[in-house]
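We emphasize that the prediction below concerns an isolated chain of 232 residues; any contacts that depend on oligomerization or on bound cofactors are therefore not represented. The input was used exactly as deposited, without trimming of termini.
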Amino acid sequence: MTPHDSQHEHGSAYEKYEYEYEYEKYAYEKDGAAIYRQSFATIRAEADLSGLPADVGRVAVRMIHACGMVDLVRDLSWSPGVVSRAREALKAGAPVLCDVRMVASGVTRARLPADNEVVCTLSDPAVPELAAGLGTTRSAAALELWRDRLDGAVVAIGNAPTALFRLLEMIDAGAPRPAAVIGVPVGFVGAAESKDALAAHSSGVEHLVVRGRRGGSALAAAAINAIAREEE
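Result of the prediction step, given as a token string:
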């Protein structure tokens, strides 16, 4: 194939795409920035944010954007300093410790203020043996590998209630305290209870939770992204 043939072939393909584009069946917004602006405006119009502090409200908006449920606000529970404390920690270079890769992958690195390390230890080769020895899930056992990073870290748990319970057990046993915990594991077994335990924990660790069964990795990552930078 000559360069001329290659150009001709690509040109034909582009013409085909342009031709097909002229006959779109559906009318929809294609501008990414416009979609973004309209989404956030819709959330602010439909969600009742009146009972939230301004900083928590901005986090709630981004979490709603991740799940599409404007009634999420009614299930939010938080400590007064969670956003400011977590933001200060990130600005100081604290790592973000995540229970699963889905949370870690959802954290927008460009929003992090200090090129912060985003850590998930679930796939570490040591975890299966740790889990067997502790008699718990791999998600919970993986937190044992956080110990040297836990002091002043920002924790985001979006999947495993056992991980959140294990974190609280570690703190009870004298492990270093994180700066803040985003505790939003999802599920039918232990999820609601683990979040209630975090909110009521005697350490008073700064926290944000979604009460009940709802939660998930997308919500955890969205909360971190909102905290990391004030601008939407």
